[in-house]
Amino acid sequence: MEDALALATQKWKRQGRILKIILFGAHAVGVGFQPLPGGRLPKYSILVIVNDDRIVDQSNFGKHADDRLMREHAIAGRLTTPVSLSVRGIQSVHKDLLAGKSFLCDAVQQGLMLYELPGHSLAPPKPRDSVAIREERLAHFEYWFTNATEFLELARIACARGWTNRGVFQFHQATEALYHAGLYVMTGDSPRSHNLTWLRDRCEDFAPALASVWPDETRFERRCFVLLHNAYVKSRYDQRFRVNDDELSWIDRHVEMLHSAISELACRRLGETAGTFPLSH
Q: Taking 80 as the threshold, does the pLDDT of residue 96 lie above it?
């Protein structure tokens, strides 16, 4: 936080503070060392609450922290387990707690407080009517799942015409939309993020079985997911970015697996009316 705001000129930035750091997800509830389907161990899930929503929207604090944590794990080796970071402003946290949003309510109620600045209590989570919750989540699911289905069709059209970069970009969009759909089903909330790794981690915190969609036992499997992850930027701006037919085929197959898994998840959580959008071929 100090590094990100060191050169700030606005008063609200200079007064930026971390109010709370909360460990949530698998490690907070004592199952963090149980392998996910596919053999991977869960990442540490950390919620950082700062004193001003504008710090989240108008500073690089979250990105800097993500980069540092990634280096500490992948390069320096001082972290043996990767960390998935979520940064939220206190105003939006209070709003979501009072609205009964499951993600914040669960993180606060079930999480472990790692750091806390005194004098900044959180609003009590508000219980909500189950029927209203279901209807709200169903509406979000329908929006994102329909988008995902359309992105999948566009990806396949692009690939059929040999537009491989356009195709893998649309596969990325489909995957992103599916994870948003899943998070709305499970938590009633989803972040404004294009980061597939982050979205994947969030979904797998709540539905560990989704981890089996992306096997990573071979170099080829890991490369394919990295290509999909990077496609949001590199497929449009990096002239050296390439995806071959085998990689596209693997990505297509596993995005469709995710499509089916999210549909089934929604059916279980929301009832038979969810997940009924056919994927045409």
A: yes
From the list 128, 123, 138, the residue with the least C-alpha distance to 101 is: 128
> Are 86 and 215 contained in the same domain?
no
Question: What is the rounded distance in angstroms from the CA atom of residue 201 to the CA atom of residue 82?
Answer: 10
| Mean pLDDT, range 262-275, rounded to an integer | 81
CA atoms within 13 A on the CB side of 84: 20
CA contacts within 13 A on the Cβ side of 242: 4
User: Under DSSP, is residue 42 helix (H, G, I), strand (E, B) or coil?
Assistant: coil
Residues 160 and 254 in one domain: yes
Starting at the edge strand found earlier in the chain, the sheet holding 44-50 runs: 83-89, 44-50, 18-24, 112-116
> CA end-to-end span of the chain, whole Å?
48
Which tokens go with 196? Answer: 């597939």
Dist CA 147 CA 189 (whole Å): 17
Q: Which run of H or E residues covers position 245?
A: helix 245-270
CA-CA distance, 242 to 249, in Å (whole number)?
14
Same domain? For 88 and 161 the reply is: no
pLDDT of residue 264: 95
Helix axes 102-110, 164-187, angle to 10 degrees: 60
Three-state DSSP at 105 gives helix
Structural contact between residues 131 and 40, judged by C-beta atoms closer than 8 angstroms: no
Please give the residue range of the domain that contains residue 216: 130-270
How much is the pLDDT for 224? 97
Cβ–Cβ under 8 Å, residues 41 and 81 = yes
Last residue of a domain, one of 82, 116, 150: 116
d(Cα 262, Cα 57) in Å, to the nearest integer?
A: 29
Helix or strand or coil: residue 113? strand
Last residue of a domain, one of 116, 147, 172: 116
59, pLDDT greater than 80 = no
